[in-house]
Amino acid sequence: MQVSFIVITVVITYMVLMLLVGWYSKNMISDNKDFMVAGRRLGPILMAGTLAATEIGGGSSLGVVQQGMGKFGISSAWYVITMGIAFVILTFLAPKFRAATVKTVPEYFRRRYGKLPGIVTAIIMFLPLVGATAAQMIASAVILSTMVGISFQFSVIVICIIVTIYSIMGGLWSVTLTDFIQVFFIVFGMAVAIPYALGLAGGWQNVVANVPPQTFDIFKGYDAADVISLTIMYVTTFTVGQEAVSRYYAARDGKAAQKGSILAALINFIYGFIPAILGITVLALINMGSFDASLFNDVGSRYALPVLAIHAMPPLICGILFAGIISATMSSASSDLLGAGSIFANDIYREIINPAATDNDVMKITRITMVCSGLLSMLVALFNTSSIITILMFSFTLRAAGAFFPYVLGHYWKGASCAGTMASLVCGTLIVVYLEQFSKGLLFGVKIGQPILPGLIIGFISFILFSKFFPPHTLSTELTPDKHES
Fold first, then answer.
1. Which of 55, 247, 354, 462 lies 20 to 30 Å from 138, alpha-carbon distance?
2. Burial of 250 from C-beta contacts in 10 A (0-12 / 13-18 / 19+)
3. Is this entry keyworded NADP (predicted)?
4. Do residues 264 and 80 touch, judged by C-beta distance below 8 A?
């Protein structure tokens, strides 16, 4: 496909802007707290922008368009809308998250339950961030390779370099400020594509007339049980996922955390139907003969949105859309990289490898880890281009199943113990890995929809039972003092 020079120029300009913001953000970093949690100074607006941009990624743009033109139809919007529902639920927990004054989730586990749970949590949460980053690099490279006509592999390398550079310069400040710009590109770029797509199809009535009636069934692809499962998955993973919960840690105070969470939910509610409608419109164009389905034979239906943009939109608007899609994926990738670096440096390096590490040492190791994680994610992306959403769901589920209840209930239940936490971490994680990788979703011969549910159930039962049988020495929800905090 031939792409206008204007489109390429817009996207390159956007990428240069991200690098400039990263360079500017490095001036806001004076210590490790600034780097990891933005000095705990984020207000509601910045927090909402970075929360929404972090979670609206490749699955929420390319993935939902792909589902919308497939068997899911309009119900593919639930993939994004349930994120908004999760943010609403988290407003009730946000003040507790902020009040803990930790930098990472494993730090909470260490100071609440002991060193061993902290280490295990760090390992469980570090590894999936590589898969999540790889998924976002795949989505970004899809767009870049389509636009410029370069290979997918080379596109992955370019994306890896840009994301890693601006992320390591300013830490969470860099990620937050770039996210704030990116969320505009994401929502505006995708929304402005709709009228052009409908114009190519001859109007909404033509779209409706050229797709099956069940396409507009809100529960066609995702039924009510799937919606509940998605919401549970997002609540659990946003709660314990470093790339999301770090925003609550970084909020100015509990009120700012709550307001930011509500605003992020509104962005998701507004955005949710946009990629679904674009996917349906592509399906209509194929059925009308305006698009040849063979366009996707070689590269796959993940290219549906770029193909639509090139055919339907003027170069400037097409460039903004492409920048928006790359914004969605790059913002998520940068957050995952920062999460991986923070967890390794704060909870593995400082606690195991070099307990005498200074604040500057930890910041340096965080940056080195981000570079290494970026390279590892790049390798995963280069050799695995399977479904974006599948990769994301497994990464989310793996880390959430065992950690969710010890983390949330630890803020409220004085009887939560180290033994209960370890039992939940081990049992919840193992059941997810078993269902995903070995049993093909079967548990005792019964087909399980989302492995997050049995993982959570097993984790919860293990947590309660072992906490009861092996209670803590002291009944308290208070954290031990941070020995590294000056």
1. 247
2. buried
3. no
4. no
Give the single-character DSSP code of 442. E
Q: How far apart are CA 286 and CA 244, in angstroms?
A: 38
pLDDT of 437 reads 72
CA distance 396 to 365: 25
Measured in whole angstroms, the distance separating CA 462 from the mean position of its chain's CA atoms is 28
CA-to-CA distance for 323 and 146, rounded, in angstroms? 13
**8 A C-beta contact, residue 418 and residue 391:** no
Distance of CA 217 to the CA centre of its chain: 27
Give me 90's structure tokens: 């988290």
pLDDT < 50 positions in the chain: none
- Rounded CA-CA distance 402/428 in Å is 4
pTM for the predicted model, two decimal places: 0.89
pLDDT at residue 109, as a whole number: 96
Going by the DSSP 8-state scheme, the letter that residue 93 receives in this structure is T
- Give the pLDDT of residue 108: 95
Residue bearing tokens 């630890």: 410
pLDDT for position 302: 63
In eight-state DSSP terms, residue 42 is B
- Count of residues in the chain: 486
Distance CA 52, CA 44 (A): 12
pLDDT at 316: 87
Calpha distance 214→476 (Å, rounded): 54
Q: Can you tell me the distance from the alpha carbon of 94 to that of 109, in angstroms, rounded to the nearest whole number?
A: 17
Distances in whole angstroms, Cα of residue 215 to Cα of each of 80, 206, 291, 389, 478: 18, 14, 19, 20, 51
Strands 442-443 and 446-447: antiparallel
Between CA 284 and CA 380 the distance in angstroms is: 34
Distance between CA 348 and CA 346 in Å, rounded? 6
Please name the helix (run of DSSP H) or strand (run of DSSP E) that holds residue 443, with its range, or none: strand 442-443
Which of 408, 267, 243 has its CA nearest to residue 332?
243
Q: How many CB atoms lie within 10 A of CB 391?
A: 25
* Cα-based angle 456, 460, 461 (whole degrees, multiple of 5): 120
Predicted local distance difference test score (pLDDT) of residue 298: 54
Alpha-carbon distance 249 to 268, whole Å? 21
Complete domains list, the chain, with CATH: 5-389 (1.20.1730.10)
pLDDT of residue 485: 65
Is 338:167 a contact under the CB 8 Å cutoff?
A: yes
pLDDT at 306: 76
| Nearest Cα to Cα of residue 343 among 90, 37, 15, 12 | 37
Distance of alpha carbon 332 from alpha carbon 129, whole angstroms? 10
Whole-number pLDDT of residue 446: 64
